[in-house]
Each structure stands twice: as structure tokens, then as C-alpha cells.
Amino acid sequence: MPAHPAPMKPASWTYAERFVAEDEVLAAARARAEEVGVVPIGPGAGAALRFLASILDARAVVEIGTGTGVSGLWLLRGMRSDGVLTTVDIEAEHQRLAKETFADAGITGNRARTIAGAGLDVLPRLTDGHYDLVFCDGDKREYAAYLKEALRLLRPGGIVAFDNALWHDRVADPAQRDEETVAIRDLGREVLDHESLVPVLLPVGDGLLVAKKEWAPEG
Fold first, then answer.
1. Structure pTM?
2. What is the H or E stretch that residue 156 is in?
3. Residue 65 has what pLDDT?
4. What percentage of the chain's residues is helix, strand, coil (to nearest 5)?
């Protein structure tokens, strides 16, 4: 049996996390996030989202958790030039700041549809099978419910992604039993066991759990 690779050293993780550099617009969005107490997605996970949106040639994306527009801008930069991001957040003020971020980046208003409200109130109103990618960064305790909605919203071949899949090193520690950690841990098992999903857990940022919705078999 081949030996397992040595654990990644912190310097290598930092190098990978910063491999795709963020520009001044994203830096300003992060500053806004700090001012209002929002923790945005890390640069490595942001770059992963852009990559996923790009390889999907994404035309329609849903985001749960707008924040100040950091993850939304990464997504928009990977999407088609005519693609539309639908982003949901319970805080209208955060969405106002996100619109500033998108405007600073030259994103036209018709490409980012902001909806103020709770994710589980808004998602059921969206169109079945219409979306290429669903990104979840809302209430961790609702992740399983987001997955259920995402499976309905995604087209075959689409992708669902969950931020904070490692939850500050708590998910991997079985001694950690708080409600959010348990919810994320349970989500991971559900994604692994789901027969129509192809999963991967990326150790970028605070962990990005990604799964592709398989095409239905013919016949």
C-alpha cells in the first residue's frame, strides 16, 4: 500500500489560498464585511466558485447568503457574460453593500438579482431545474434543507456547493457536538450517501463541499 501524503504545511495552505489574487474591488468588499460583522468566503474558495461557474458556463446561479458581495462577485466573474446571479440574504443592508461591490466591479444591475428574505422562504419560489449552480452560505443548521431545495432547483449536471464545510476544524473532531457542527457533519454524510450526487470536499478556505447532480439514466 502506498503511503499517504504528508499533511499540508501552513505555508503551503497559505500559498494555495492566495494563488489566485484578489483585486481592489474584492478587498473593498471584505472591508465592508468587516464593518458589518460578516465573514465572507476565503480567497481560495472564491476562486473555486469562479472556476466551477466557468466550467459550467453558468447562465443561472443561486446564492444563499449575499453578505457584502464577495462570493457573489467571484461567481459572477466565472459566469457567462449574460448570466444572472440570484442572491438571497435576510439582511437588506448587506445586499445594499453587495450592490456597491457589484457596481464597483462594473457588473450591470440586471446580472445580479437580490432578494431580501430567509433562504427557506425564498428558495421554494424559484424555478425547478433552472439553475446551473447553487451556493449555500447561510444558516448552517439549515444546510440539509438547502440541499433538498438545491436538488430541485439544479438542472442535471448542475452543482451545489456549501461553504464552511470544515467549520473551523470542528467537523473533523467527533468531540464537537454543537448544533451547527452536527448539522454540517450530517450534511456531509447525506451528500456522500445520495445516489444522484458526485461529491468532493475541498480543503480551501473553511472547507467547500461540492457535489454534482448526475444526469438521470436513459430508458
1. 0.93
2. strand 154-163
3. 96
4. 45, 20, 35
C-alpha separations of 14 from 7, 8, 200, 206 in Å:
14, 10, 21, 12
Q: For strands 112-116 and 208-213, give the pairing.
A: unpaired
Long-range contacts of 191-199 (CB under 8 A, 24+ apart): 191/147, 196/151, 197/160
- The backbone torsions φ and ψ at residue 108, rounded to the nearest 5 degrees and listed phi first, read -70, 150
Q: What domains appear along the chain, each with residue ranges and CATH number?
A: 10-213 (3.40.50.150)
Average pLDDT of the segment spanning 174-195: 96
The owner of cell 445580479 is 112
Could you read off the pLDDT of 65-109 as tens digits, one per residue?
999 999 999 999 999 999 999 999 999 999 999 999 999 999 988
Distances in Å between the Cα of 127 and the Cα atoms of 14, 61, 155, 168, 183 are: 39, 12, 10, 34, 26
